[in-house]
Q: What sequence folds into this?
């Protein structure tokens, strides 16, 4: 069969193929802008394929709203494969919803039941003000990074050969695991204190584990923690909720490492 | 004479860049703070350019439409980045990377640019390691490599299946450092909607603040566009939802020629489409072809039984499997280039051997069982267990696979609800990358003076097909190691210009164009959503300007897209207002540009009466179904000049491609 018909047939046929559809009720936070008061609104959505992702379900709802000439729901997203960190959402009381080790864009509707009522709210924290509906401002994370989340090396390309310093695989792997943080903010939204410790600790750990990061280790941790406090994030009281909801399974070990780095930094700063 | 001057320097290929660089003009450090540079885009190309220029002391303003520069689409790149380091001692060299890239591009890229790319590739890895990018390492602590398609060496550096993330976070850290130092001012959630030219030169942009809706004027002495590729013209692609052509298309409308729009890469290994509400497709990295073997059943009845749910792939005996890539291309096997692998999958599925359970049968297997066994055996042996049981071997093999590809396997399972450690992955080709883009000369300058284009947004390095792991290389090469030199050369003539005012007629006119378009959409009062039109466009593009193209289909596409454009502008409904966050408005502006671009792609594909790389014209193939190039008539880059609203009026300019250092030949992976 030629490709020409293939795509049409495929899209037609997939309706049939979709394993199952469910009908759901949604309670979604609507807020016109940063200055207005928001509220939960109720929506009903039928024929949601269980193979759809959560965001595809919201697309479907938005299409319905547009066809009814209502304003669609604003939410953040981009890559839709769990890596850009742009999607957020507090779903049924959990950041990124009920599944583990996934972002909202990777959450699938097969995790929900027919007839279920699903609650959708923005990530809430003083340092993440709401912009509109489910969209929040996380630029505070960028400012923490600007305070020290880098190695001060110029981009001339004239550094030493990449293999000049061997790095034990174990350290490199640990640094990578910490560097896998996508900056989504679920840790903050899940924390009773709205603390950004897990996010900051992931960055501090990545560099602390690598020889390239050691030179500026002291200033880095002090500056990043100071900025974190200035941005209005809360203190860490070790509840561990952040690591449970973190889609990239960033471990609490990183917070312990950052605390050690911070202590070292404070001591040598004196 | 053509208006295209590629400015390729004289000299031997291996000396061109070095000699050229030595003679470029410089701007003294004390003059740099008086000069403004705008960078649109913060992917690998934009972040690295903004960080480098900021570091040099220019006043840089950087823009991205996401809420943070770290979220640019580069973040999603999975498999790796090439560099001619020859760490594996398998005979790699700058020349070989250069040669592989030219051949991979089916002899439709510019030699001098590609050689420069190969030359600086090693520095990229050095730079990234110095920035603390945690690449994968071997037990000895040195960097690990893997293979990618179209090569016979191991030159790909990687960080699990998240290489793009780690590289972008590296570039983002360099950018953040400059933002912290006040040398780069970052504009998140801003979208460039037009370019401003004064006396023919690029002098600024018009951007919309996506939160407040405010239309802003920004002036500069040079503008760099690093806005990524246009794969989303197909609606469904592996690109991020927001990836778009608007920045590139807007400069095209103001005089930048757009080259080879028909060159699109359809990637062989993506998760097949699941349903009508599907919003995007997910790539399964090419690196998986290092370990996975691609097959369909040898017997049609087996394929039928699988589709009917009566047979499982694991029940098909070894001798009843058709490892068609290994069969057709023994020299490269599963690691043939992407265009070749994609067409081979389509050939098998069209012939009735596809395994996906729908009428079109569009799916093939990517099977890891052989690798799990062999790597498990090796691991057992290395651990001193010379008589390991089958179960022990498989357990160790799975562990090995997890360490290499864990995040990809998890992603697959979350999407499909199937466990790829136990059953082969189902995959099918999908739109992935666009080799075409804004035409640029050797300096990466477009035909608008002062407007440079970098990364996937330009057309320069990949010819008609890009080899895996070379887009990341190009993005960082452009931003870290090419633009700082060539942009400075241009700016050397601007040290006396002084700040560019924004209260001029040129800015007024550009702002008016943007406001008119926005108002038109908001007052249109149509009945259909933006997505409705975007999906329609995607269907036309995939069916008629997709993996296989022919004259009749292309002519139909041109008609249909023309009609779609009229319907879109008459009948699209954009809710909300101009002075707020309005995602539907953002999409409407992008889709308007996609429609025009799609039209040009069809015209370009129609014009190119040959098959090369990803551009497969069904009329031009050999007896075995391989591409048939026509070097006599089509050995050129085709750059289109905008001539007003009717895209049919665009004029083609040809840049003849000269192969002085590589002998042009039929591309053979057998
Ligand atoms: C899933 C996937 C996997 C891939 N894996 C690999 C791989 O393993 N190896 C490899 O080499 N390549 C890979 N590629 C290709 C590679 O990732 C891209 O080609 C490359 O990252 C593009 O980088 P860029 O800097 O040109 O653009 P992008 O990263 O796309 O960045 C574009 C930037 O421009 C901004 N922008 C766009 N328009 C505007 C506007 N109008 N106004 C303001 N800002 C704007 C965006 O906000 C963004 O910051 C992959 C691609 C995909 C889709
Ligand atoms: S630590 Fe986890 S939850 Fe927090 S920002 Fe990073 S990825 Fe998100
Ligand atoms: S949209 Fe990118 S992580 Fe969800």
A:
């Amino acid at each position: 069969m030629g490709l020409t018909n293939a795509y049409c047939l495929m899209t037609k046929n997939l309706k049939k193929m979709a394993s199952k559809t469910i009908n759901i009720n949604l309670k979604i936070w609507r807020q016109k802008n940063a200055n207005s008061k928001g509220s939960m609104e109720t929506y009903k959505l039928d024929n949601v394929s269980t193979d759809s992702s959560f965001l595809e379900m919201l697309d479907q709802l938005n299409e319905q709203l547009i066809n009814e000439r209502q304003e669609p729901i604003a939410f953040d997203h981009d890559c839709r494969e769990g890596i850009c960190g742009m999607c957020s959402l507090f779903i049924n009381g959990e950041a990124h919803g009920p599944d583990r080790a996934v972002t909202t864009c990777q959450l699938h509707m097969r995790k929900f039941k027919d007839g279920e009522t699903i609650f959708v709210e923005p990530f809430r924290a003083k340092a993440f003000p709401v912009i509109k509906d489910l969209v929040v401002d996380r630029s505070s994370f960028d400012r923490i990074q600007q305070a020290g989340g880098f190695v001060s090396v110029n981009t001339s390309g004239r550094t030493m050969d990449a293999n000049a310093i061997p790095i034990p695989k174990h350290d490199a792997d640990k640094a990578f695991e910490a560097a896998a943080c996508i900056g989504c903010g679920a840790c903050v939204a899940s924390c009773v204190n709205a603390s950004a410790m897990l996010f900051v600790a992931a960055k501090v750990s990545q560099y602390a584990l690598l020889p390239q990061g050691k030179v500026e280790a002291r200033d880095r941790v002090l500056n990043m923690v100071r900025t974190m406090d200035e941005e209005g994030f809360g203190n860490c009281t070790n509840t561990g909720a952040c690591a449970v909801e973190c889609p990239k399974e960033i471990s609490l070990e990183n917070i312990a490492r950052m605390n050690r780095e911070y202590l070292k930094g404070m001591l040598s700063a004196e | 004479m053509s208006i295209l001057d590629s400015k390729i320097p004289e000299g031997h290929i291996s000396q061109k860049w070095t000699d050229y660089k030595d003679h470029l003009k410089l701007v003294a450090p004390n003059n740099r703070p008086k000069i403004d540079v705008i960078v649109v885009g913060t992917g690998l190309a934009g972040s690295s350019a903004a960080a480098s220029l900021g570091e040099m002391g220019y006043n840089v303003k950087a823009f991205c439409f996401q809420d943070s520069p770290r979220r640019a689409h580069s973040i999603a790149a999975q498999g790796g980045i090439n560099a001619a380091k020859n760490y594996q001692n398998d005979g790699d060299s700058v020349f070989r990377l250069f040669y592989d890239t030219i051949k991979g591009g089916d002899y439709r890229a510019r030699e001098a640019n590609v050689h420069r790319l190969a030359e600086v590739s090693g520095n990229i890895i050095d730079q990234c390691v110095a920035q603390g990018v945690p690449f994968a390492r071997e037990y000895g602590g040195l960097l690990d490599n893997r293979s990618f398609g179209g090569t016979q060496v191991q030159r790909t550096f990687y960080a699990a299946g998240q290489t793009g993330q780690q590289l972008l976070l590296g570039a983002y850290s360099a950018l953040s450092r400059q933002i912290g130092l006040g040398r780069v001012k970052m504009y998140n959630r801003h979208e460039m909607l037009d370019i401003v030219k004064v006396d023919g030169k690029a002098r600024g942009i018009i951007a919309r603040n996506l939160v407040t809706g405010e239309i802003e004027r920004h002036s500069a002495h040079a503008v760099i566009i690093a806005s990524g590729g246009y794969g989303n013209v197909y609606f469904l692609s592996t690109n991020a939802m927001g990836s778009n052509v608007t920045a590139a298309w807007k400069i095209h409308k103001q005089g930048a020629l757009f080259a080879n729009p028909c060159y699109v890469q359809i990637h062989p290994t993506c998760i097949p489409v699941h349903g009508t509400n599907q919003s995007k497709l997910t790539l399964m990295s090419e690196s998986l072809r290092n370990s996975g073997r691609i097959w369909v059943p040898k017997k049609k009845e087996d394929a039928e039984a699988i589709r009917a749910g009566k047979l499982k792939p694991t029940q098909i005996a070894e001798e009843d499997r058709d490892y068609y890539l290994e069969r057709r291309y023994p020299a490269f096997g599963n690691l043939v280039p992407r265009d070749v692998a994609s067409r081979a999958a389509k050939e098998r599925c069209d012939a009735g051997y596809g395994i996906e359970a729908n009428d079109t049968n569009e799916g093939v297997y990517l099977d890891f069982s052989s690798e799990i066994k062999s790597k498990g055996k090796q691991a057992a042996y290395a651990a001193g267990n010379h008589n390991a049981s089958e179960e022990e071997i498989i357990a160790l093999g799975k562990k090995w696979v997890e360490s290499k590809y864990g995040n990809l396997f998890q992603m697959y399972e979350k999407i499909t609800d199937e466990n790829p450690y136990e059953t082969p992955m189902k995959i099918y080709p999908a739109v992935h990358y666009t080799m075409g883009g804004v035409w640029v000369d050797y300096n990466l300058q477009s035909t608008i003076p002062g407007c440079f284009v970098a990364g996937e947004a330009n057309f320069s390095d990949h010819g008609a097909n890009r080899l895996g792991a070379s887009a990341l290389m190009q993005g960082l090469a452009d931003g870290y190691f090419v633009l700082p030199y060539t942009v400075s050369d241009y700016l050397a003539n601007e040290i006396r210009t002084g700040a560019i005012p924004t209260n001029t007629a040129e800015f007024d006119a550009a702002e008016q164009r943007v406001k008119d378009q926005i108002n038109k959409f908001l007052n249109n009062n149509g009945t259909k959503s933006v997505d409705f039109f975007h999906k329609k466009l995607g269907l036309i593009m995939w069916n008629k300007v997709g993996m296989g193209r022919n004259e009749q289909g292309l002519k139909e596409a041109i008609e249909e897209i023309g009609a779609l454009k009229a319907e879109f502008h008459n009948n699209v409904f954009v809710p909300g207002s101009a002075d707020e966050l309005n995602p539907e408005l953002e999409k409407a502006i992008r889709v308007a540009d996609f429609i025009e671009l799609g039209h040009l792609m069809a015209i370009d594909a129609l014009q190119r009466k040959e098959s090369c790389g990803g551009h497969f014209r069904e009329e031009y193939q050999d007896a075995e179904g391989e591409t048939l190039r026509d070097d006599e008539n089509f050995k050129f880059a085709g750059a289109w000049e905008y001539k007003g609203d009717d895209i049919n009026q665009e004029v083609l300019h040809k840049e003849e491609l000269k192969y002085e250092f590589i002998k042009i030949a039929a591309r053979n992976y057998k």
Notes: Residues 267-431 of chain B form one domain. Chain B has 17 helices and 19 strands. The longest helix of chain B spans residues 390-416. Residues 232 and 239 of chain B are 7 Å apart (CA to CA).
